[in-house]
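User: Structure with fe (ii) ion, tokens only please.
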Amino acid sequence: MFIDIPSGLEAALIDLPLPTWEVDGPFLAESTLERYRAELKATPRFEETAAMLRNALTGEGGGYAVLRLGNLAEALGTGDRFRRLATAFAAEVAVPFSPFPRWPLWKDIGVKVDKDPGKSSGIGYNAFHMDLVNATLPPDYTTLLCLRPDPLGGGPSILSDAHAAVARLSQDTRALLAETAYHYGTFFDLFGVGEECKPFSILDGSDPGKGFVRFTAKMLERSELGQPHADAAEELAEELVRGQVSFMLQPGDYLIVNQRRFLHGREALHGGQESVPVADRRLLLQLFLRARADDGSSE
Ligand SMILES: O=C(O)CCC(=O)C(=O)O
Ligand SMILES: [Fe+2]
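Assistant:
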């Protein structure tokens, strides 16, 4: 699931004249998609690298990938030129978009010591979840570009195959997860992700491996659930942990998660974040992707 960029391609990408991107409402503009695609197609071994990436995300047993862009980050810095390249790779998977009006396409995830530690940009354990879990149409992919890991060495990413975890549960537990009895979070002013889904079912009754496992372990502490449903959700959370993989994102690593297959989270950052200057703390950029209607991954 870790994909290196062939050195010939890396060299060509460093010199690639990608223009500033444009947006059309919440989506990356079609003209930008076409321009980026045309530039990338002309670079050596690009098609095979993009195919490998798509296969890691949607092929048999796949569901996430880490594209290693560290050398490019080192060569280009982590500003606009690097971000355009990451955007161009993302666009090879699906259409980049921002569900948050007035926010840029890429959203900063820094470290805030006084925030709820279990939430985005908090310092604690960020439990297994899908992003925008309470939208009728969550992003098909969530992506995280690591600009700076925790300088104190904490915060490995965690990933787990949601359908595999569900398959290990009893029939009774799965039946509870298929009931429309769960809710989480707030919902306002979002683009491109449908309506608020409240309450929702975690399993949607489609065939195993199809559809979302609409889950966030954060609901265990932050939503009031009836006891049988809370217990079923707890069992799923435990199975996700049992099946997890974890790794530390390095500078320039680009993690892409197929939200129809895998759930993600992050271990706690190392203690002592208060003593790290804000400018040196862990920094990720987040971007969401919408699958194209014709690519089969949204079936
Ligand atoms: O900090 C991380 O590595 C993950 C953050 C995350 O999952 C989120 O903000 O949605
Ligand atoms: Fe997330």
